[in-house]
Structure formats: C-alpha cells, structure tokens
Amino acid sequence: MSSILLYLILLLAGGFLSYKGLVPKKLYHRLDVVQMICLFALLFTMGLRIGMDDAVIGAFAEIGMHATLYAVFTVAGSIIFVYMFRKGWMRMRGGKKA
Amino acid sequence: MTLKIILAVIIGTVVGLFVPESYYGVTDHMLSIGLSLLLFFVGMDIGKNKNVLKDIKKSGAMFFIVPLGVVAGSLIGAILAGFLLSDPVNESGAIGAGLGWYTLSSIIIAPYSSELSVLAFLTNVIREIIAIAAIPLVAKYIGFVEAIAPSGATAMDTTLPIVSKNTNAETAILSFSTGLILTMIVPVLVPLFLFRP
User: Fold this and answer.
1) pLDDT in tens, A23-47
2) Residue B4 and residue B45: Cα distance in Å, rounded?
3) Alpha-carbon distance B58 to nearest alpha carbon in chain A (angstroms)
4) pLDDT tens digits for B52-67?
5) Which of B121, B99, B119 shows the shortest CA–CA distance to B188?
6) Where are the transmembrane segments (chain A) (predicted)?
7) Which candidate, B75, B79, B59, places its Cα nearest to that of B181?
8) Do A56 and B118 touch (CB under 8 A)?
9) Is B26 at the interface with chain A, CB within 8 A?
10) Is B178 within 8 Å of B156 (Cβ atoms)?
11) Range of the domain at A64
C-alpha cells in the first residue's frame, strides 16, 4: 500500500515541479533522455529476473497464448464500455433537455 | 521504439540465464529505485504540457467518461479472460490494470511474480498491436470516441497519431487527455490488485 502512495506522490511532485517551472533547465530539456535511461535499465532488470526464473522460461509459449486472450478481452471490453458509457451519458443529457 | 523495448527485455533475459539466483533479491531494490525515478520523471513530462487545463476544459464530461470506460472495460475484460484461464481475480485484474502501458505495469508486477510480469508485458504489447490495427476500423464502424478505447494509456503518445489521423481534432485532444488520466491511474491501480496492506 505504501508503494502506491509513493508512486502517486512522485508522479504528482514531478508534475507540480515541472508545471511551476521549478525543474533545472538542463534536466527539463533532457527529460526524454533521462526517462529512456531509467526505462531501459528497468526493462533490462525485468529481463534479468525472467532469465533467472526457470519456470517462466519453460512456460513462455503458454504465456504468449494467454497474453493474446487477455489482450483481445481488454481491448473488446474497453470499446464496449466506452460505447455504453457514452450512450448512457448522451441519453441522460437528452433526458434533461427534454 | 516497441522493438527496442522488446530487445532490452530479451537482452536482460539472456544475461539473466547466466546470473546466479542468489542475486534475485538485488533486482528487487533495482526495480524499486528505478521505478521511483521513472515515475518522478514521467510526472515532470506531464507537467511540461502547459495546455493540460485547457485540454481538460475542451473535453467536457467525456474527459471522465472515456477513461472510466477504458478502466471498467479493461478490468472486466481481463477478469473474464482470467476466469476462462482459471487465473486468480487479483492477478487477472492486475494485468487489465496495466491499461496498455506494458513497460510500467510489468515492472510494477515484477517483484510480485516474474511469470505474471511477463504475462502483463506480452498482454499489453499485443494490446498495442491490436490497437494500431483496430483504431481505424473502430473509428469507421463504431465511433470516433470509441476509437480511443483500444489504446488505453498509450492514447497520449504512441497511438495518438493513429487516433488523430482516423478521427478529428476534437477526438485527438480527448485522446491525449484520456491517456493522461490513464497514465496517472496505472501506478495506483496495478499495485492495488497485488499488494495488500
């Protein structure tokens, strides 16, 4: 739970500092590079953990098939719910006007 | 970019095959520190856009409705898929909570389980590929607003040009604000499913 709070605070603190112009110019203009360095270091670390775990390596094909099913369901779910919520909102607004 | 990301994970995996398991604990600290830094910089990047508040006003109620639909649909879709695969609800929910942000969601999940982390990574990479193919079709046959849905958190960056090309300027702004909200939600939503107080 504390990690959730920490992530949120860091995200908001970064946003606030940048929005208020409190980030040093050198860093401000190189944010994308700094982000890339962090990201690739993290992805490499994630890969390290995968490589160190024999169970994951052995089940890679099966994980791929499961991932495809998850991806299809999450995309379909997102489209359906955005459609339903938008229609519901339009109906509510229409009802109020009438 | 996607190719470079996949390559970074593959290189890490190959190196990991030769690293003794006793170093597994060290990677926990590496992930925590790296993730904290990354989120701080992601926040800075969001704050760079001084038009954020204007974009929010332009989007109106859809500013909340579209992200809400994407979150609900992704979670319910993932939990349904998890039900078919007999996966625990909290794990399938965490995969859905990645909302297409494959790098961050899989990194957050990594300390919980490497296997789940790989599943989340591949799910969200495949989601982006499906999104790229589906956006033009959804825009044409269902609606412009719905065309934002497949992208999830990538609606503000990698898939934004595709949304913009296949819809209109108003939808492109809505796509950006949706991606922005979802980007803020992922770091909170994913751990909520996995790490109990």
Assistant:
1) 888 888 888 888 889 888 888 988 8
2) 21
3) 16
4) 667 667 678 888 999 9
5) B99
6) 6-22, 34-51, 63-85
7) B59
8) yes
9) no
10) yes
11) 60-98
Angle at B67 between CA B125 and CA B6, to 5 degrees: 15
- Tokens standing for B4? 């470079």
C-beta separation of B134 from B104 below 8 A: no
Closest C-alpha among B144, B149, B151, B153 to residue B181: B153
Question: Is A46 at the interface with chain B, CB within 8 A?
Answer: yes
The answer to whether the beta carbons of residues B154 and B186 sit under 8 Å apart is: no
Nearest residue in A to B126, CA atom: A71
Alpha-carbon distance B2 to nearest alpha carbon in chain A (angstroms): 12
Token readout for A92 is: 């509510």
Domain boundaries, chain B: 28-194
Summarize pLDDT for B24-40 with one digit per residue, the tens.
888 888 888 888 888 88
Length of chain B as a residue count: 197
Flag whether A80 is in a domain: yes
DSSP label of B157: T
CB atoms within 10 A of CB B1: 8
The CA R_g of chain B, rounded to the nearest whole Å, is: 17
CA distances from A46 to A63, B34, B100, B158 (A): 16, 11, 17, 22
Decide if A14 is inside a domain. no
Number of structural domains, chain A?
1
Chain B, window 159-178: residues with a beta carbon less than 8 angstroms from a chain A beta carbon: none
B79 and B96 Cβ atoms separated by less than 8 Å: yes
Q: What is the ipTM of this complex?
A: 0.84
- Residue of B4, B5, B9 to mutate for A, most A C-beta atoms under 10 A: B9
Distance from C-alpha of B115 to C-alpha of B120, rounded to nearest angstrom: 9
Does B46 sit within 8 Å of A74, measured CB to CB?
Answer: no
H or E segment at A13? helix A2-19
pTM of the full structure: 0.79
